């Protein structure tokens, strides 16, 4: 019993510390997201790599409406759907994927929704972000490299998108501003759970550790009453 208690105590304390540190990391991300909400920085494609994540930028380019992607398994308020990923060809010759927002799943896996977009050159505002990542590799599905468009994909890497698109793409993507045209439902927020959620999980694990210690003491150290 003592050995089991020590092992479980170490486990609970370790899990609590892990969740607490995740909360701190998540808080830093959320703070960075809030700070980056100021005026957009005008930049070319070559300058994007030098900017921090979530930076609000102004680009100029033209959408490629012929080759688009649908990010699968993207839910909104509990409803299944897709996020529309469209390549923006920039004036300097580079290109980046733009997340134009969320659309609902229409109930047909063999009939993908129409996602039209005009292709004239224009200014585009948005935030720099990473592509969504899966918790497990089993959740990833690269887009097909042949076949009709749009192409379905789950948690792709930039290399996956490049292989399907057939031309180089800049790393990451752009989250299209909610006021920009040719977009869908966009209520962007920092990634992951709220920081306080992780901290509450940490407190729960530490609470389990305290309860375990109380039970151990209560079961193994009984107070003996004096004999008459």
Task: Please give a structural write-up.
It is a single chain. This protein has 228 residues and is an alpha/beta fold. It has three helices and seven strands. The protein has helices at residues 2-35, 158-165, 195-220, and strands at residues 41-42, 56-71, 81-90, 95-104, 122-129, 151-153, 173-176. The chain has a five-stranded mixed β-barrel with strand order 2-3-4-7-5. Strand 3 and strand 4 form a beta hairpin. The longest helix is centred in the N-terminal third of the chain and has 34 residues, at 2-35. It starts with a helix and ends in an 8-residue tail after the last helix. The mean pLDDT is 88.
Question: Layout of SSEs?
Answer:
Layout: H1 2-35, E1 41-42, E2 56-71, E3 81-90, E4 95-104, E5 122-129, E6 151-153, H2 158-165, E7 173-176, H3 195-220
Parallel strand pairs: 1-2, 2-6, 4-7
Antiparallel strand pairs: 2-3, 2-5, 3-4, 5-7
């Amino acid at each position: 019993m003592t050995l089991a208690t020590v092992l479980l105590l170490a486990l609970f304390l370790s899990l609590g510390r892990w969740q607490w540190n995740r909360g701190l990391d998540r808080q830093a991300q959320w703070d960075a997201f809030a700070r980056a909400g100021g005026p957009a920085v005008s930049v070319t494609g070559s300058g994007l790599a030098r900017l921090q994540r979530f930076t609000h930028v102004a680009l100029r380019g033209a959408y490629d409406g012929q080759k688009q992607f649908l990010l699968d398994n993207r839910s909104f308020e509990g409803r299944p759907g897709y996020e529309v990923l469209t390549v923006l060809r920039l004036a300097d010759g580079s290109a980046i994927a733009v997340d134009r927002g969320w659309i609902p799943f229409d109930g047909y896996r063999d009939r993908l929704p129409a996602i039209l977009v005009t292709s004239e050159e224009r200014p585009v505002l948005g935030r720099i972000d990473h592509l969504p990542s899966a918790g497990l590799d089993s959740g990833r599905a690269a887009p097909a490299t042949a076949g009709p468009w749009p192409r379905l994909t789950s948690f792709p890497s930039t290399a996956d998108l490049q292989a399907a698109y057939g031309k180089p793409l800049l790393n990451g993507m752009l989250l299209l501003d909610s006021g920009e045209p040719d977009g869908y439902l966009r209520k962007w927020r920092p990634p992951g759970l709220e920081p306080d959620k992780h901290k509450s999980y940490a407190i729960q694990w530490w609470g389990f550790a305290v309860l375990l210690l109380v039970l151990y003491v209560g079961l193994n150290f009984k107070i003996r009453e004096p004999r008459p």
